[in-house]
Write a structure and sequence with these properties.
Elements (H helix, E strand, L loop, with lengths): L28 H10 L3 H18 L1
Length: 60
C-alpha cells in the first residue's frame, strides 16, 4: 500500500497506519471475526485473535 509514496502524497485513511497496516482497535467483534475468516497470514490471524480476546475480556 505505502510503496513508493511519501507522507505528502499519501491519502489519509483512519483505518490504516502510516505503513499501510490495518488498525484493529475500532472494529467490533463481528467485523473482527469476519476479518479472521478472510485472513490468510498466520501473523495477522494471531493479531486479530488477540484483539478479539481483548474485546471479550473488556465486555465481561
Amino acid at each position: 500500500m505505502a510503496v513508493n509514496q511519501n507522507q505528502k502524497n499519501r491519502k489519509s485513511n483512519p483505518m490504516l497506519t502510516k505503513t499501510g497496516k490495518t488498525r484493529l482497535g475500532p472494529l467490533n467483534a463481528a467485523q473482527l471475526t469476519k476479518l479472521l475468516g478472510t485472513s490468510t497470514k498466520p501473523k495477522e490471524k494471531d493479531k486479530i485473535q488477540r484483539a478479539l480476546n481483548k474485546l471479550n475480556v473488556a465486555a465481561a
